[in-house]
Design brief:
The complex is a heterodimer. Chain A is of the alpha/beta class. Chain A has three domains: 6-69 and 107-176 and 293-355, FAD/NAD(P)-binding domain; 181-285, D-Amino Acid Oxidase, Chain A, domain 2; 375-430. Helix content of chain A is 35%, strand content 26%. Chain A is built from 16 helices and 17 strands. In chain A, a hairpin with a 2-residue loop joins β16 (296-297) and β17 (300-302). Chain A is globular. Chain B is α/β, with parallel strands linked by helices. Chain B has a single domain (4-121), classed as Rossmann fold. Helix content of chain B is 42%, strand content 20%. Chain B contains five helices and five strands. Chain B has a five-stranded parallel sheet with strand order 2-1-3-4-5, with helices on both faces. In chain B, β4 (79-83), α4 (89-92) and β5 (98-103) form a beta-alpha-beta unit. The chains are: A alpha/beta, B alpha/beta. At the A-B interface, β11 and β15 of A face α1, α3 and α4 of B.
Chain lengths: 432, 124
């Protein structure tokens, strides 16, 4: 590794770090991009769906670039609400998703991250893999570089912590507390190999197109969380994630939970005949807005999952990380021009995040999980009510329809109209 | 023959240091760098004690710990968690078989003390 000092050291070659590195290297800054894994993406477990616009702002028209590591452009986004033997699906499919800037792509992170990191190298950043950062170096009270696990010291004007969920760097900088079971999710995922033609038939897709689906209800066994199913080129990504405290209370292993999800009749049909290629399981800190560490200090910025920047109900994370990485990079470029890397100078990063969608979106959903968790049985009762009502609507059982209507009113009245309104009111935040 | 210790660690540098430390103390050491391969490696090696990292690729140390705590073959096996992720300490406290939680960088003497102690308690 080069011993010379850098304008910026970016720790973590994921969406946030690579984005920051590209932006800074393009502006002529000397940038080191450090990755703990053998290669970018080696340690990653994301789903994954990537919203395009934020990457387009960094790499214009990236989907036309040769070798772009994308799976399928998503034309249909669906939500499925399940009970054990019934399910309601609703979704939105639009060819508009393919026009202009395609809305989102399914990606396989291990491939995508390597490709994206290569773009940072093309821009002039120096990428070093297999480097674990152990400590931050402090000089005169400010962070002035890092120390690796094999004892190398690298100096820089600024260090960007983009080392993902469970950020060691934010921890070393004293910005992260202990993980709490209610603020941590446990996720399990399988990549299931399936012939592309079968995928397209089952999901009613034209060749090359993709779909993304979130599944709520009985599949999470009353725990706070959801399952997802995404179509890749030649595989499906099927995963489930719930609060760790819920898994602890239930005494259930995520691997066993994923097996139960696979057995739900709706899921079972979609993955039938597939071959499990890969299984992953990880702790995922999901404290969100309330658990965000300070985003800047003297010579230090935090971006992406390292700063808890996720929006699970909207399935956003990697796109937010890209925006945050870009804004962190732009902040560093301005700081370099001023020759001032103090906290006051770097605080512009927080203002940029406030002016963007990042912080406002996270703030809007900050109480949503607690609201849902505060209603016992929320994720069982409402899917069941919805399925029971749908069953009445779609059954011709010889009973006069006016009795169906009375029955439907009774189902709603049993729960209580006011209670339903109160329970569902917090969901307005994720309605649009 | 020395007791058998399995080291599961995603950081190659740390893995080789732990291996060297334990072998120098007379233990037979098995190693695994990847969480996905760890269960098979443990089943095959049948260690007397496991040293477990948390931030492993594929399947992380916490997910492995859940399995280790539930499987009859491993539920009583002493485990020393050795990780850079200090905030995870509270999460491991609920597992009785976790005899120590150590953070990286570690002192070899402290690691050996925990390993010696745990194996002595487990029946010498």
């Amino acid at each position: 590794m080069s011993e010379s000092s850098y304008d910026a050291i970016v720790v973590g070659a994921g969406p946030a770090g690579i984005s920051a590195a590209i932006v800074m290297a393009r502006a002529g800054l000397k940038v080191a991009l450090l990755e703990r894994g053998e290669y970018p993406g080696a340690k990653n477990v994301q789903g994954a769906v990537l919203y395009s616009r934020m990457l387009h702002e960094i790499l214009p028209d990236f989907w036309t670039m040769p070798g772009a590591a994308l799976e399928r452009p998503v034309v249909e986004q669906k939500t499925c609400v399940t009970t054990e033997d019934s399910w309601i699906t609703f979704g939105y499919k639009s060819l508009k998703f393919l026009q202009g800037i395609p809305n989102c792509y399914t990606i396989i992170r291990v491939k995508f991250d390597q490709w994206y990191a290569a773009q940072a190298e093309t821009a002039g950043a120096e990428l070093f893999c297999g480097v674990t950062v152990r400590e931050v170096i402090r000089k005169d009270g400010r962070i002035a570089g890092i120390k690796t696990s094999d004892g190398d010291e690298l100096e820089s004007s600024v260090v960007l912590a983009c080392d993902g969920a469970n950020s060691l760097l934010a921890q070393k900088a004293g910005l992260i507390d202990e993980l709490k079971p209610v603020e941590v999710a446990l996720g399990a995922k399988e990549v299931i190999g399936l012939d592309p033609k079968i995928i397209e038939d089952r999901f009613q897709l034209n060749p090359g197109e993709g779909s993304a689906m979130d599944i709520f209800g009985s599949v999470t066994l009353g725990m706070l969380g959801y399952a997802f199913l995404y179509t890749n080129k030649e595989s499906l990504s099927l995963g489930v994630g719930c609060r760790l405290s819920d898994y602890q209370a239930k005494g259930l292993r995520p691997s066993d939970h994923l097996e139960l999800v696979k057995r739900h009749p709706y899921v079972a049909k979609l993955i039938s005949g597939g071959k499990t290629l890969e299984y992953s399981a990880h702790l995922i800190p999901e404290g969100g807005f309330k658990s965000m560490p300070p985003l800047f200090s003297d010579g230090f910025l935090v971006a992406g999952d390292a700063a808890q920047m996720t929006n699970p109900p909207y399935r956003e994370g990697s796109n937010i990380a890209m925006t945050a990485g870009r804004l962190a990079g732009e902040t560093v470029i301005e700081a370099k021009k001023k020759g001032d890397f103090s906290a006051a100078s770097l605080s512009a990063y927080q203002l940029k995040l406030k002016a963007s969608y990042v912080l406002s979106d996270m703030e809007d959903i900050k109480d949503l999980e607690d609201a849902v968790a505060s209603v016992p049985g929320f994720l069982e009762a409402y899917p069941k009510l919805a399925c029971d009502l749908a069953h009445l609507r779609f059954s011709a059982d010889g009973v006069p329809k006016r009795q169906h209507l009375r029955q439907a009113f009774r189902l709603v009245a049993d729960r209580g109209l006011w209670r339903i309104a109160k329970d569902l009111w917090p969901l307005r935040k994720v309605a649009i | 023959m020395g007791k058998k210790v399995m080291v599961v660690d995603g950081d190659a540098e740390s893995l080789s240091t732990v291996k060297f430390t334990l072998e120098a103390a007379g233990y037979e050491v098995g190693v695994c760098e990847n969480g996905r391969l760890a269960w098979d490696a443990i089943s095959q090696f049948q260690p007397d004690l496991i040293i477990l990292d948390v931030m492993l690729p594929g399947i992380d140390g916490y997910s492995l710990q859940i399995k280790l705590a539930q499987e009859p073959a491993t539920k009583d096996m002493p485990i020393v968690v050795l990780t850079a992720l200090e905030p995870a300490k509270s999460l491991f406290q609920k597992f009785p078989q976790v005899v120590a939680f150590m953070t990286k960088p570690f002192q070899p003497e402290a690691l050996l003390e925990h390993v010696h102690g745990a194996l002595a308690r487990a029946g010498g």
